[in-house]
């Protein structure tokens, strides 16, 4: 709460600013601290997180490149790999609800064809790696992207049962490279929201705490990858829809530079004027797979990048911000998120000739407004947005009715979709002059980053200010998307990288931003972050008691010594569920080193 008071007092310089500060104080206090407490009480008292089944098949822990290499070398069969992932999806989907349709029989058939081909193919391993680098690797795809014969509804009730008649361009490229689609994953309705739920397939859960959001709109991809139900996936991103769920689920997600990866074959169809803002990109459990995925997805456009250029981390210049610059609307950066960023900065300070430099880019605090005004300015007709959601000729009465019904859970439409239509109709700028101040900030941001991100330069900041929140707690926090959405408008490559788990066991990480078409720098930094900090971690569900978040994992208290007043002091070590043996081993070592129990007696001066 002290943060909100400090922000309030900082802006008290005039009556007008005083009034604005009061409003912002209560808005941020309500959407931040108070909302977290309210949702925390409800979830801690009445809900319990569900644990994922443990990963038992070691094939599920290989990277995509590792799987492809084993298949090329005939060390494992493609069929066994695909079957392992199909079985894993069957295990985890009842917990996370990430998959809306499996492609099991087709995938197994294609895997058998790969095994037959390898039995008679005379190409060398090097030739196979060059021609089909993802040979036999299972692939998951966001359901908003066409895979021939598979569901293609984007969670819209009126599109129930609609199937794709052809593959999207990126899917064609991935199939040519040998990847085998095995599942379609859940998305928010029409990809309109930062949480993944809709009235066709329900809500996707975060595997680290199923009471919390998986993010959106590619939340199904993020949750499935984090659950070891997939190793590589395809998402799309017009306002952070790859990077947000990657951050919330502790995997890697890359939004490519503008104009590199083809976007044909998506729903909703993107207006031509918005094409520069949308990025179809890879989501991977392992950073080592990002480069190959990006190269394959880009097709012939990969020659516009420098993916084979060697990156010297020693010569890298890194700039960073610990927040968006303290915007009035965005929430403060959580301690765990800030700590993750500081650890990354500290690591690169050791290996870079030029220490990372903290900068302050003023326009970033307006990121959400810049994104909203830029997108709205490109939308040709508000009526087309309404028609896409409600059909032609929808009256304002119907829209308001659906708004009320969506709040009560009676509508076929989710609340974020209806709210978006109303915002477009009533709050979107009606003239260019209204949007011009933010378009001016956009132009200044473009100049700032162009000057900042020369060759061998990257910029890092939090992907989002907070880790995954409880389901629906983000309803009034759309402004936090400004952290990621602003880079869609700027067209810059941006990569979400997991660093560690915070004190509540939730993933936290950083966002790496490079100069235009300098995606290779992002990917090199992502690989180094994975190497140093471990990358993806298996979800270990933590249980809590009431609002005090008292851990009830298997816990043992250990005496270490007595303090200056003769009172015993010690430590508590927490192990994973049913990992009591680890606790006991640590007990014995602490007793050996520090003596364990100390005889009680009077203090001797």
TrEMBL record:
Pfam families: Amidase. Coiled coil: none annotated. The active site is at 142 (charge relay system), 217 (charge relay system), 241 (acyl-ester intermediate). Gene3D superfamilies: Amidase signature (AS) domain (3.90.1300.10). SUPFAM superfamilies: Amidase signature (AS) enzymes (SSF75304). Transmembrane segments: none annotated. It comes from the Eukaryota. Residues 81-520 form the Amidase domain. InterPro entries: Amidase_CS (IPR020556), Amidase_dom (IPR023631), AS_sf (IPR036928), FAAH2 (IPR052739). One of its GO terms (cellular component) is endomembrane system. Belongs to the amidase family. This is Amidase domain-containing protein. It comes from Oedothorax gibbosus.
């Amino acid at each position: 709460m002290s943060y909100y008071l400090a922000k309030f007092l900082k802006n008290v310089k005039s009556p007008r600013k005083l009034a604005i500060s009061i409003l912002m104080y209560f808005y941020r206090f309500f959407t931040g601290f108070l909302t977290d407490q309210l949702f925390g009480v409800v979830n801690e008292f009445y809900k319990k997180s569900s644990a994922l089944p443990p990963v038992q098949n070691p094939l599920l822990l290989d990277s995509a490149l590792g799987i492809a290499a084993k298949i090329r070398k005939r060390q494992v069969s493609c069929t066994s790999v695909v079957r392992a992932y199909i079985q894993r999806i069957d295990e985890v989907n009842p917990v996370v609800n990430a998959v809306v349709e499996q492609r099991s029989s087709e995938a197994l058939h294609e895997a058998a064809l790969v095994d037959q081909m390898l039995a008679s193919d005379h190409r060398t391993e090097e030739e196979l790696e060059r021609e089909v680098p993802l040979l036999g690797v299972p692939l998951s795809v966001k359901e908003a992207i066409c895979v021939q014969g598979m569901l293609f509804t984007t969670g819209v009730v009126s599109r129930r049962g609609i199937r794709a008649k052809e593959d999207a361009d990126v899917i064609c490229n991935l199939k040519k490279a040998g990847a085998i689609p095995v599942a379609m994953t859940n998305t928010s309705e029409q990809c309109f929201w930062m949480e993944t739920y809709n009235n066709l397939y329900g809500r996707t859960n975060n595997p680290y705490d199923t009471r919390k959001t998986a993010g959106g709109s590619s939340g199904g991809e993020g949750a499935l990858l984090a659950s070891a139900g997939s190793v590589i996936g395809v998402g799309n991103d017009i306002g952070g829809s790859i990077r947000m769920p990657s951050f919330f689920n502790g995997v890697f997600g890359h939004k490519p530079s503008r104009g590199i990866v083809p976007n044909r074959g998506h729903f909703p169809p993107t207006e031509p004027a918005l094409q520069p803002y949308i990025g179809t990109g890879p989501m991977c459990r392992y950073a080592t797979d990002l480069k190959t995925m990006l190269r394959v997805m880009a097709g012939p456009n990969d020659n516009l990048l420098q993916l084979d250029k060697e990156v010297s981390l020693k010569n890298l210049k890194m700039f960073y911000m610990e927040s968006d610059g303290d915007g009035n609307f965005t929430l403060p950066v959580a301690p765990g998120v800030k700590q993750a960023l500081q650890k990354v900065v500290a690591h690169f300070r050791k290996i870079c000739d030029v220490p990372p430099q903290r900068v302050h880019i003023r326009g970033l605090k307006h990121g959400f407004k810049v994104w909203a005004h830029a997108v709205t300015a490109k939308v040709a007709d508000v009526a087309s947005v309404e028609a896409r959601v409600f059909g032609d000729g929808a009256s304002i009465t119907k829209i308001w009715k659906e708004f009320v019904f969506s709040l009560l859970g009676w509508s076929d439409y989710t609340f974020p979709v209806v709210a978006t239509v109303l915002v477009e109709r009533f709050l979107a700028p009606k003239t260019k002059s209204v949007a011009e101040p933010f378009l001016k900030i956009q132009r200044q941001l473009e100049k700032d980053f162009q000057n900042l991100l020369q060759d061998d330069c990257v910029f890092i900041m939090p992907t989002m200010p907070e880790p995954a929140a409880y389901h629906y707690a983000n309803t009034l926090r759309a402004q936090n998307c400004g952290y990621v959405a602003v880079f869609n408008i700027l067209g810059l490559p941006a990569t979400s990288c997991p660093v560690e788990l915070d004190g509540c066991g939730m993933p936290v990480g950083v966002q790496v931003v490079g100069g235009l078409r300098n995606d290779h720098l992002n990917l090199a930094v992502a690989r180094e972050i994975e190497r140093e900090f471990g990358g993806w971690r298996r979800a270990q569900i933590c249980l809590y008691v009431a609002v005090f978040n008292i851990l009830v994992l298997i816990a043992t208290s250990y005496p270490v010594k007595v303090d200056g007043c003769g009172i015993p002091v010690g430590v508590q070590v927490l192990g994973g569920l049913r990992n009591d043996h680890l606790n006991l081993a640590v007990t014995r070592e602490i007793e050996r080193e520090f003596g364990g129990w100390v005889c009680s007696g009077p203090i001797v001066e």
